[in-house]
Design goal:
Layout lengths: L1 H8 L11 E2 L5 E2 L8 E3 L10 E3 L3 H27 L18 H12 L1 H7 L2 E5 L6 H13 L5 E5 H11 L1 H8 L3 E7 L6 H15 L5 E5 L3 H5 L9 H14 E5 L5 H6 L1
Parallel strand pairs: 5-8, 5-9, 6-7, 7-8
Antiparallel strand pairs: 1-2, 3-4
Helix pairs in contact: 3-5, 6-7, 6-8, 7-8, 8-10
């Protein structure tokens, strides 16, 4: 009865496509890969000669490729939801790169090409330059290209990470540490208070201690990162304590050019 119920659910004989043929065993064969599209079941409980459909080699491989592509799409969707919470970040891809800044474009592509080595050594990039020149764009181009390779990435602004640390504590630390690449946007916009400086330090130090790479963007000048000036509330030593962690792991890369944001407003 069990066998009969199974057989009852099997579709009728496979449809014959152009080039298909009947073999000497009476079964249908694929005209492309020349492997069976039918199989004869062994005798069981007095039943003999039951013929059922099966996948020929080329159809099996096609189905496997389709399933692999489906799993890949689902994986990418999950990585984007987790790592690119701002929908705008998902639009920053090399496909949209107009190569106005060819040096930045080529360097970012090379970073992706050498990802395994960069990940092994924990090598990152500190993008600096004027407001609106494309620092976040290029950092996100790298992030999106790596996500296409199923590499877990998180893109988050430093102020947002600090707020998350205030509200969720260790959960935010774990979120910062977990992905293989962290993109930390807007270094230098942290709150100018001792408490804000401490939060910024905890965020960056949490990532630093993993040894994993990070990309950082800032509107600060190179000199301001190398030798920050103190303010009434936050001393230069406290700022340097934050920036040292970045400088140890990231090489400077200046993104030149006119503000693209300003162009869009004209």
């Amino acid at each position: 009865m069990v066998l009969q119920s199974v057989i009852a659910r099997i579709p009728p004989a496979a449809e014959k496509s152009a080039g298909d043929y009947l073999g000497a065993d009476g079964l249908l064969y694929c005209g492309e890969c020349r492997t069976p599209k039918q199989v004869k079941l062994p005798p069981f409980c007095g039943r003999t000669g039951d013929v059922v459909n099966c996948l020929c080699k080329c159809r099996y491989e096609k189905r496997e490729q389709e399933e692999k592509a489906r799993r890949h799409r689902e994986k990418l969707d999950s990585l984007r939801r987790e790592g690119l919470p701002d929908m705008g970040y998902r639009e920053y891809t090399f496909f949209r790169d107009d190569r106005r800044n060819a040096a930045a474009s080529d360097s970012c592509r090379k970073y992706v090409e050498q990802w395994e080595e960069n990940e092994r050594t924990g090598a990152g990039i500190l993008f600096y330059g004027n407001v609106g020149t494309g620092k976040t764009f290029y950092a996100c181009c790298i992030a999106n290209a790596l996500i296409e390779q199923e590499v877990p990435v998180l893109v988050i602004s430093l102020p947002m990470a600090m707020r998350g640390l205030e509200r969720r504590g260790l959960d935010m630390i774990e979120k910062i540490q977990r992905p293989r690449l962290l993109v930390l946007d807007d270094l230098g916009t942290e709150r100018g208070t001792p408490y804000g400086a401490e939060l910024a330090y905890q965020v960056i130090d949490a990532r630093y201690r993993t040894g994993k790479p990070m990309l950082v963007t800032t509107n600060l000048k190179k000199a301001e990162v190398m030798s920050p000036e103190g303010t009434e509330n936050v001393g230069s030593a406290d700022k340097m304590r934050i920036y040292d962690r970045v400088l140890e792991r990231c090489r400077f890369f200046k993104v030149n050019g006119e503000s693209r944001r300003k162009e869009r407003l004209l």
